[in-house]
Amino acid sequence: MNCLHCGAPVLINNVCSECGLKQEYLIRAWNTSLYYYNEGLSKAKNRDLTGAEEALKTSLRYSKLNIDARNLLGLVYYESGQVVEALMEWVISSNYQAEENPAVRYLKLVQGNQNKLSAYDQAAKKYNLTLHYVKQKQDDLALIQLKRILSSNPHFVNAYLLLALVYMRAGSMEKAKKALQRVLKIDRYNPRAQEYLDAIDQSEKQHGYSSYEADEDDASDLPPMDADGESGWESEEELDGEETAKRKIREIIERGAAAEDVGQDSNLEIGSYQEIKYGKHNVLYLCAGLVLGVAAMFFLIMPNRIKEVRNENLQLKSSYSAELASKNEQIANMQEKADDLQTKIDELQGTIGKMNEANNGTSLDNNLLTALQAYMTGDREAAIAALGSVDLSNTELSESARACAQTVVDNCADILDPYRSAGMTAFSAENYAEAITQLKVYCNLKPDDVEARYNLASAYKSTGDLASANALFDDINKRFPDSEYANRDENASTESDTSGSTESGTEAGGTTSTEHTMPEE
Amino acid sequence: MINFDEEIKKFKPAAEMNQLEDTIYKNDFSDVADVLIEVMKQAQQPPQNKE
After folding, report:
1. What is the pLDDT of residue A254?
2. Which of A5, A222, A362, B43 lies 20 to 30 Å (CA to CA) from residue A346?
């Protein structure tokens, strides 16, 4: 035999080897616990939930290991709307006995429906809030909250009692009575409900029925009691109260009060967790909402949005086109102005050219007049010196001026020859500056002397004045193509392009001068 | 006649889900076996000397 308390072996003297308790005492306590359990069960069968609660609590005081008493107490709590207390009893029961305990199944069933569990929790919170309202005498708010509480937890006995109390304080005795009758349908001998009903009856007797309002439409104030087909308040009144109570108690007992009768196939209905799959519905609603939202976006929002974007693009395009047209017009105007300015520039350049030509002609005329004046006064050297700057081969010189100058030159040939000899000597001595000075005067007045002209060009080339040198070389090639000096310096122009330094020009000139001073004769 | 204020004081707040664990721990009352064990423990303790 094992100990009823700790399960350890019992000694011969009926004392537990572990905890030392006499088994006689434990057996008596267990029997007493069973007695009160049976009393509680009997009261529960009569739907005396308050009495059953008291008896079952006493049973547990004698033996807290009485699983049946604890499970039945949980059911009584659950039936009276105290879900948290019911869960507590079932949790403790399942801890004492984890296997073959209906409390485990109760917990699974209740906790399997989280939505309803949350509704019960919210109802408890609102009930606590309503207590605060009632204490603060805010009866309107309390009534609103109580109706919400009873719609989510229609077996909440304390909420009905509180509702009845609020109605009584407001003088709505009929409504209070109906709320109390609801309580008595759940808990037939609820002492507080009976006390309130007695008080209402006494008050009605004192004041008469006519003193209270006739609440004909009160049925709508209270929610239907059960979701399993039992209708609201008025239809239930027509039923035989005793029969209804018996039936309900029978259901409770069949559900699990007698623990040994409860099996996996029993029709236990705790809440409506099996009837409504809130989770599934929520997922379906969510999916449907998503599909509708996407469809609405594609069919209602997107076309408008595309239209707006297209309009914006068109406006942008038109604005850019207008801007481009104005820019093109500005460019055309500026091009026209540029053409006008270019025309003016050309005209001015033409004017400048004419003025330069006029200046050159004036200079030539002045030199010629000076020479003539010196010649006429007998100063032939001065005449030659003045004419020295006049190139008789210049095509701009008029024929009369050329003839006049040629006459002077012919008459002063003896004075002109020393210029040639001095120039040639200076060129041979590589005194190119002096050679240029002397030979320039001679060559201007004797443009047909090829040798002097060639040496002058070579002197220019040697000093780096390649432009003058090339002009002279070209003149020689053009006017005296058959002479030995023609085409002797074809590279002069090329050198003028490539040679930028005076040093290289001087070097080339030196080489050339050596060649020119010893022509092939 | 009912005294409303007194009656309202009889209503206690309902237990909420977040208080479930605390409620379970507070519900650990003693039964007859626990009382007997406590009595035996006290009986086994040596009596205090009275001067």
Report:
1. 56
2. A362
Residue B3 covered by a domain: no
Phi-psi region of A321 (alpha: psi -120 to 50; beta: other; left: phi over 0): alpha
Option in B14, B27, B29 nearest A158 (CB): B14
Query: Which of these, A476, A488, A425, A477, lies nearest to A448 by C-alpha position?
Result: A476
Give the pLDDT score at A362: 67
Contact state of A161 with B31 under an 8 Å Cβ cutoff: no
> Is A29 within 8 Å of B32 when comparing Cβ atoms?
yes
pLDDT tens column, A452-486: 889 999 999 888 888 888 888 888 888 888 888 88
The closest of A162, A136, A132, A135 to A147, measured between CA atoms, is: A162
Which residues are A10's β-sheet partners? Answer: A16
Distance from CA of A154 to the nearest CA of B (A): 15
Length of chain A: 521
The nearest CA of chain A is from the CA of B18 a distance in Å of 9
Single out the residue of B23, B26, B8 nearest to residue A158, CA to CA: B8
Q: For A310, how many CA atoms within 13 A lie in the half-sphere containing its CB?
A: 6
pTM (two decimals): 0.48
* Domain count for chain B: 1
Domains (ranges, CATH) in chain A? Answer: 1-112+239-276 (1.25.40.10), 137-238 (1.25.40), 417-517 (1.25.40.10)
H helical segments located in A377-411: 380-387, 399-411
- Token pair belonging to A249: 């108690």
For A252, other C-beta atoms within 10 Å of its C-beta total 22
Give the tokens for residue A371. 């020479």
Residue B24's domain comprises: 12-42
CB B3 within 8 A of CB A168: no
Q: Which residue of B has its CA nearest to A4?
A: B33
Q: Nearest-CA distance from B49 to chain A in Å?
A: 27
Angstrom distances, CA of residue A65 to CA of A2, A39, A60: 15, 17, 7
pLDDT below 70 — which residues of chain A? 208-280, 360-363, 489-521
CA distance A258 to A72: 8
The Cα–Cα gap between A463 and A437 comes to 12
Burial (CB < 10 A; 0-12, 13-18, 19+), residue A264, is exposed
Closest-CA residue of B relative to A88 is: B24
CB-based contact A142:A130 (threshold 8 Å): yes
Does the distance separating the beta carbons of B11 and A85 come in below 8 Å?
Answer: no
B26 vs chain A: nearest CA distance in angstroms? 11
In a domain, B5, yes or no: no
**ipTM of the prediction:** 0.83
Bridge partners of A9, per DSSP, are A2
* Distance from C-alpha of A444 to C-alpha of A440, rounded to nearest angstrom: 6
Please report whether residue B38 resides in a domain: yes
Chain segment A117-176, per-residue pLDDT in tens: 899 999 999 999 999 999 988 989 999 999 999 988 899 999 999 999 999 988 888 999
Whether residues A192 and B24 touch (CB distance < 8 A) is answered with: no
**Residues A151 and A184: beta-carbon distance below 8 Å:** no
- Chain B positions touching A22 (Cβ under 8 A) are 36
